[in-house]
Amino acid sequence: MKTNLPAEPNAFVGRERDAADLGRLLESMRAVTLCGAGGIGKTRLALHVAHAVLDAPPADGADDGGVWFVELADVRPDGTTEPVARRVAAALDVAEEDGRPLTETLAGALRAPAVLLVLDNCEHVVEECAKLTGLLLARCPRLRILATSREPLRMAGENVWRVPPLEPDEAVRLFLERARAARPGFAPSGAVYEVTRALDGMPLAVELAAARVRVLSAEQIARRLADRFRLLSAGDRTAPARQRTLRAAIDWSHELLDGPERVLLRRLSVFSGWTLEQAEHVCAGPAPPGGAALPADDVLDTLTALVDKSLVTVTGETGGEVRFRLLDSIREYAAERLADAGEEAAFRGRHRDAVLAAAERDGRVALGVEPAPWADRVALFHRYDTELGNVRAALTWSLDHGDIAEGLRLCTALRAFWIARGRVAEWADRTDRFLSAGRDLDPRVLGPALAGRAQLAVGGRDFAHAARRAGEALALCREAGDDFMTATALITGAECLARAGRFADAAACLDEADALVRGPGREWTRAYACAARGYLLIRESRLREARERLDTAASVMREIGHLWGASHAMIGLGRLAELRGDPDSARGNYAAVLPILAEIGARPELARALAGLGRVALAQGDLPSARASLARSLALSRSSGIRLDVARALDAFAELVACEGDARGAVTLAGAASALREATGREPGTGARRERVLEPIRRRIGEPLVAQYWGEGRAMPADDAVARALRGPGTVPPPRRPVPGGAAEAVPAPVTPPSTLTAREREIARLVSRGLSNRGIADELVISPATAARHVTNILTKLGFSSRAQIAAWAVDNVPAEGS
After folding, report:
1. Which partner for 785 in 53, 88, 143, 778 could form a disulfide, CB atoms 3.0-4.6 Å apart?
2. Is residue 746 part of a domain?
3. Which residues contact 139 (CB under 8 A, 6 or more apart)?
4. How confident is the model at residue 784 (pLDDT cuts 50, 70, 90)?
5. Which residue in 529, 535, 520, 540 sits closest to 571, CA to CA?
6. Is-contact 609 597, C-beta < 8 A?
7. Does 300 share its domain with 278?
8. Where is this region: Disordered (predicted)?
């Protein structure tokens, strides 16, 4: 076959599927344009496809005209098709005829043979290419054209193929292939993935980075990518100048832009991703002194042009709006242009202000301050998955430039999103940075920020920190006259006091919060306080009243379209049903919240609901169902990074594994849970369900082995403990207790575990074993029935039991009778 195709310079890596699909497309379509940013690999892909066409056997009877490659990068446009036509004619060795237009001569030469014409780098002569190819395709029925350009030719019959960045595994393969060519024996490491990810899978950038392994390790390259244009500047000397460095590749695209396109491109660098509305709001309007004007009405067409020229990427649709982004290398280049134009401060400030305004509006909707249907709230939660980069950028700009009040307002506005998603650690840290720099701020900013920080601490199960921050917030919010945030601080403080056993103080806080939110428009806060009261009443063993409060909270939350808030109350109802010995009701409440919480990705509460389902299944002896629910709960807790939740999940797994017959695994997981609790700064645990787990194991295998396995668990890293729990039911037979002389004791002596109950609780447990009611216990001990009920609830909680009968059975073996 006739051709002038240059040989492929090296092994073609990745995009095998794209190449195959393009080959098939060219069998049925006559004009295909590969579009993409500079350095994305358009030419390399076109060359590989052209070679595949060249190597394919010709169709029967075909007048084979060959495959021809036409390089247009250095063609100078003059507004006509002549310069492009001359380059095509030269490649095909077609001579010009006196008195006849060259396009006519080309059409005549290409009328009969089956030719594939590859037109490379059409972007700077795109109109001329469109006219010429349109004319040739109309007159030459067997001609096919494969073009590469940073924007479509926009001619009839054109099929535009957007060349995307390499997939992550393809980018790694390309890096390794080129790195081993530069330094034989190069060994891969995790830094290779880091490098290719940072370079967005852009082939030119990956190849330039791989060439640096002659003198740098992959780890060194990763560290130097902050200055990527300097690092990626030593390309192949035989390549065209625009492909020798990453900057040159992007410069080539930038030089082809008109004035408004350059202005918009540099201003878009303030975003990590955006919608048209965001671009119009931030990038248009009045410019700083000496800056260029960009009317808002022009943004749509200018943005479309940047998409067409492959400098802006369409990433998909979220919430009914198309979103866009810049590849990281292009964004860094554009950011340099923004700074050079003297516009950085103005437009990064505009970006931060836009993010803040949206966050405060959306935060009010998320917390029920402003009415909205549940579907709208769900959309907001998902919106902030895509807006995360913009929020981080706005916070970084605010902190770096001393805009502490704005940063704290942003942290406060979005706390509901971070708590729901279990992203507490990062956002608590960001909030703390602003708090440490802004202790003298206006109480109207600082008070709500401290209250929001307290809520983040509750979300992370750090109740001591939450109590301190709520206390600091309270006086400031009162001073500012902010009833909503004052009530928020009071409710958060009450939650912390309840966990500390200070029930009267917690009730007083809730009473004050109730008084502040009696007016219209405060339904969410009233329901929030009502749910907190329900949880407090559970701790006080006032189960009937607790149920009334939790039912009311769930009902109000549903009425205002806030199903996340309703779920919080329903999880309390599930726990209440467990304590009342009503597994069907418990299961129903826990199961009902799962689709709601999954809809907004509320990982921590989803984990707690699943843990409840697991406990119910375990109590009923349904071990497969228990394992399924507890495994999902543990995985979610681990992904949220809330260590106390992980510890609780490991405790639940210890009981499950014990029921499955793996004594060693049960003790090991219990030990790991204890150590993890201590690592969070808490006590190793009261035993809760743990005492019930360990006691029969001590009886069966003896204290020495239990102590050994307990030590193994306490020394086990949390990730290893999680992996151990998720491994599946074990088949290890229960070991036998060693005795002096090396023999195994056939029937180990019972070992009574050290109890976590107080002396009073042990006394009440003994009375329960005698069959006394709360009233009978009160009469026996000369206390109130409510106090007796509270003690019984504490015993149930500490021992992990769900009924008085379980307490009675336990007390027979573990609480000595009076006088013994």
Report:
1. 778
2. no
3. 107, 110, 111
4. confident
5. 535
6. yes
7. yes
8. 729-754
Number of domains in the chain: 6
pTM (2 decimals)?
A: 0.73
Q: Per residue in 367-415, pLDDT tens?
A: 888 888 999 999 888 888 889 889 999 999 999 999 999 999 999 999 9
3-state secondary structure 243-299: HCCHHHHHHHHHHCCCHHHHHHHHHHCCCCCEEHHHHHHHHCECCCCCCCCECHHHH
Per residue in 303-335, pLDDT (tens digit) is 998 988 888 888 888 878 899 998 888 888 899
- Does residue 544 lie within any of the structural domains? yes
| Cβ within 8 Å of residue 304, ≥6 positions away | none
| Residue 436 within a domain | no
Task: State yes or no: pLDDT of 504 exceeds 90.
Answer: yes
Q: CA 680 from chain center: how many Å?
A: 24
Residues 217 and 261 in one domain: no
Q: What is the pLDDT of residue 144?
A: 93
Please identify, among 726, 746, 779, the residue that sits at the C-terminal boundary of a domain.
726
d(CA 89, CA 196): 40
Q: Sign of the CA dihedral 628, 629, 634, 637?
A: positive
pLDDT in the model for residue 726: 86
Secondary structure element (H or E) that encloses residue 317, with its range:
strand 313-318
| Cα gap 756→391, rounded to integer Å | 46
Structure tokens at 690: 């743990």
Cα angle: 75, vertex 80, 85; to 5 degrees = 55
Calpha distance 805→817 (Å, rounded): 17
**184 plus 138 within the same structural domain:** no
501 sits in the region (left: phi over 0; alpha: psi -120 to 50; else beta) called: left
Contact criterion met (CB below 8 Å) for 598 and 583: no
Average pLDDT of 111-128? 90
Question: For strand 64-71 and strand 114-120, is the pairing parallel, antiparallel, or unpaired?
Answer: parallel
pLDDT in tens, 569-605: 999 999 999 999 999 999 999 999 999 999 998 989 9
What letter represents residue 254's amino acid? Answer: H
Rounded to the nearest integer, the mean pLDDT of the chain is 85
* CB neighbourhood size of 102 (10 A): 19
Give the confidence band of 743 by pLDDT, cuts at 50, 70, 90: very low
Given a cut of 60, is residue 163 above it in pLDDT?
Answer: yes
> What's at 524, amino acid-wise?
W
AA identity, residue 249: A
- Those residues with Cβ within 8 angstroms of residue 669's Cβ, 6 or more apart along the chain or in another chain: 650, 651, 653, 654, 657, 713, 721, 724, 725
Identify the helix (H) or strand (E) that includes residue 119: strand 114-120
Q: Is residue 813 scored above 70 in pLDDT?
A: no
Give me the DSSP letters along 32-66: EEEE--TTSSHHHHHHHHHHHHHHSPPPTT--EEE
Assign residue 79 the CATH number of its domain. Answer: 3.40.50.300
CA-closest candidate to residue 386, choices 442, 435, 320: 320
Do 668 and 657 form a contact (C-beta atoms < 8 A)? Answer: no
Average pLDDT over residues 663-681: 87
For 292-330, give one letter per residue: b (16+ CB within 10 A) or e: eebeeeebeebbebbbbbbbbbeeeebeeeebbbbbbbb
Contact 293, 286 (CB under 8 A): yes
Residues 710-722: tens digit of each pLDDT: 888 888 888 888 8
As a whole-number percent, the residues of the chain with pLDDT over 70 amount to: 90
* 158 lies in the same domain as 198: no
Q: Which domain holds residue 184?
A: 168-250
For tokens 């826990």, the residue is 590
Domain boundary among 230, 250, 270: 250
Same domain, 609 and 678: yes
Of 47-61, 268-282, 329-343, 349-363, give the lowest mean pLDDT range.
47-61
